[in-house]
Amino acid sequence: TAKLHTLATAAGKKYFGTAVDGPDLNDAAYLKILNDKGMFGQVTAANAMKWARASPHPDATEPSAQGQFTFTAADKIATAAKKNGQVLRGHNCVWHNQLPSWVSNGGFSAAQLSSILTTHCSTLVSRYKGQVYSWDVVNEPFNEDGSQRSFVFTNTLGTSYISTVLKAARAADPTAKLYINDFNIEFSGAKSTAMLNLVKSLQSQNVPIDGIGLQSHFQVGKVPASLKSVMQQFTALGVEVAITELDIAMALPATQAQLAQQKKDYQSVIQTCMEVSGCVGVTLWDFTDKYSWIPGTEAGKGAACPWDENFAQKQAFDGIAAGF
Ligand code: XIL
């Protein structure tokens, strides 16, 4: 069988990777593929490095009180990755979701929130220093209309929270590439323009920024035609880009026609990354339908990954291999 990371690196990319979540790592059939030499050269923790996660999941880093860090789940993923020679994409320092209520509802002043954010990101980033290729320092900062999302950090600090957290990340691990990551910036429009403008503005203020992550949660038959031109606009600023959370969902039950289209869609995403020299790698938002987040999020949708629920390779797998 083709080895996707091996194909990616032979084609000049830095990695081919996947998201992994705590529960996945207790599944022997899952681990066999995850750790198949040359298949994945990079992993992203799907949840374990986030600020918090709804109870009862233990996989979060500062979930219940200021300064009380828990790294059990994140360390498990990092240790396994190291053992298997896989680099990490850190995910993430700040996001409006999975943000604990002690932060959102703590009534903190601007100075306090800035310090809370700096400490959170520094602690997280320094812990995995040396193992991380890139960090999603800021996740999903924009609304669809290109305005900044309203949440505790913008509401209290304005958009300066972005430069604060990027500087904290740089100081904590000077070798990690620092990314801003979002979805629907794969389409040209207000949101991708806002990302372009944000990066330009950070660069003009000498704020460290190395990359833009395009999440790429797509629907079968609807890979945006603008993917390449948007990536080229981003890389023209002198930053790199990556496909950070690729999955391609379909209406359930999966049909042969949809699975065949999904193969073409996966192949076209990989080909597009190949056509943009500043596109450094591609990460699946988990590789198997067994652990995909899609059915739990979008009712009636699923079958979004290149391996099915029983760990059989789908046509999509061949599409990826053919794309490199
Ligand atoms: C998702 C996880 O996969 C789910 O397990 C969790 O319940 C919600 O978050 N964009 C992101 C990711 O940046 O962190 C999200 O991950 C998917 C959307």
TrEMBL record:
Any single GO BP term: xylan catabolic process
Localisation: Secreted
Listed GO MF terms: endo-1,4-beta-xylanase activity
Pathway(s) where this gene product acts: Glycan degradation; xylan degradation
Gene Ontology cellular-component terms listed: extracellular region
Catalytic reaction annotation: Endohydrolysis of (1->4)-beta-D-xylosidic linkages in xylans
Protein source organism: Heliocybe sulcata
This protein's record includes keyword Signal: yes
UniProt record similarity statement: Belongs to the glycosyl hydrolase 10 (cellulase F) family.
Domain spans labelled GH10: 1-323
EC number per UniProt: 3.2.1.8
Entries under Pfam families matching the protein: Glyco_hydro_10 (PF00331)
Keywords of this entry: Carbohydrate metabolism, Glycosidase, Hydrolase, Polysaccharide degradation, Secreted, Signal, Xylan degradation
Protein name per Swiss-Prot or TrEMBL: Beta-xylanase
Uppermost EC category: hydrolase
Entry-linked PROSITE patterns: GH10_1, GH10_2
SMART domains, sorted: Glyco_10
Active site residues according to the UniProt entry: 245
